[in-house]
Amino acid sequence: MGRLDGKRIVVTGSSRGLGRGFAIGCAEEGASVIINGTNPDAVAEVEATIRDAGGTATPVIGSVADESVCESLVATCVEQYGGIDVMVNNAGIVRDKTIMKMTVEEWDEVMAVNLRGVFSCTKHAALAMRDQDPQGGHIIEVISASGLSGGFGQGNYAASKAGIMGLLRTCFMEFTRYNIRVNAIWPVAETDMTQVVFNRANAQAEQQGADAPSPVEMGFGKPHEVAQGIIYLASDGAVHLNGQCMSFNGRKTALWSHPAENYLEFHAEPWSADELDAYYQDKEPLPIYRPAMIKP
Fold first, then answer.
1. 81, 157, 178, 232: the active-site residue
2. What CATH number is given to the structural domain containing 241?
3. Which residue of 27, 163, 187, 291 pairs with 226 in a disulfide if CB–CB is 3.0 to 4.6 A?
């Protein structure tokens, strides 16, 4: 018995990296999986890997920047497997540059995949899940540290992932009545997309005459290790979670709190600028939180 026996799952951007690990991991646990990517050969390799292991997979080629592809992902899942239980919005790209060097085209390209694509897939998955009432479904949004805490040279990527969190909270408000849950996961894994992090660490270690740290020492897991987080969230064991954000690197996990007010103060009458000046004079600016990647 697999943890996901009978589940019907769509994993966007599943031809390589984390998405590949997510799709293979879900199939190994008994799910029927719709796999997706823009490279037909890479998608075919994932499909063959799943089928050779006795799993079930159906490919849909195309970019989630195209809404018709998002609609096709959901429609194919419903047609092939009889419904959709879980949508994993994993597809994402990076076009890293500092903001003063970034072009509008580089901004738009990232937003088209990372945010508009998530919106379109979320929308069409929710429409199908609503029609499955009272069964509903579960939408899992894949985010990143950049979206939670910012990322140098990743203004477009960080904004897209932060936007997903705003979308998630809105979906929580709108979808719960249809028994549709929405959660996010911040997965930390060693992939092509994160290779730049290791390159920087290796260069720094070389300059210092030290040994280069391993990915594990830097708080990064392998895709198949991090896939356990998706497997858990997609399972019935996580039905009590809704509107949450979980971080997971294979060895460390946490739930993130939602934005909250600090230094809260009410006045009976409207504040003046002078009063605000006096009130905040002794208030320390709140720090931007940087998560711990490894155990202290």
1. 157
2. 3.40.50.720
3. 187
